[in-house]
Amino acid sequence: MTSHLFAICCHATRPADLARFWSGVLGWKPADDPEDGITIASPDTAGFRIRFLPSQEPKVGQNRAHFDLTSTSLEDQRQIVARALELGGTHIDVGQLPEDKHVVLADPDGNEFCVIEPGNTFLADTGVIGALACDGTQEVGYFWSKALRWPLVWDQDQETAIQSPDGGTKITWGGPPVAPKTGTNRLYFELVLPADAEGEAELDRLLALGATRTDAGEGDSGRTMMLDPDGNEFSVRRHR
Predict the structure, then answer these.
(1) Domains in the chain: how many in total?
(2) How far is CA 177 from CA 138, 147, 158, 234, in A?
(3) Per the record, which residues fall in region Disordered (predicted)?
(4) Residue 169 forms part of a structural domain
(5) Which of 18, 56, 126, 223 could be disulfide-bonded to 12 (CB atoms 3.0-4.6 Å)?
(6) Residue 130 domain boundaries
């Protein structure tokens, strides 16, 4: 059986502080964490979690992935931005234009995210996190569509997007040119195997789709670290 997307993991210098920030911005509640991280979860049980994992590595360059938050009105957009700033977020410049209607911010650990203006039809009915917007190739979009068995909902001009058959957050890739990778990604996918799944068979399936194993291998946690075709880290963990 196919592994499913359990969490977006985020390396953080201050996991507890970052969890409080995102919990406050999203309205998500703390959840049990399988190991030594801090987890918050969407009220929608079909959605993924966000896990904040301790790391002392400083942020280098712009992240390859960021959250796009949705808003229902201009006033709602202003309130989301104000709440994020009050919780410790900051305005940042990543090259957006003055006429752009979305607002670009960074969380207290420097991770970029956007608050999208109301009326964005592509993100309609996706939830508070409309998209995880990634820097990546068309090939990696195809890989993750097959890996998660999520259908492609956009495939044009080498830009791709996938979404769970149950709806919710979309995952998008902007196509070339893809910025060079600098160090380990701060955000990465964590997949979990169903309780009755055969782990090696699923790993073999992912390898056949284009993933590779990393030197990290598998530790006592039962987690296998892998790379997707663009070299982004992701993990596959046994169900507990």
Answers:
(1) 1
(2) 11, 23, 10, 22
(3) 214-240
(4) yes
(5) 18
(6) 4-173
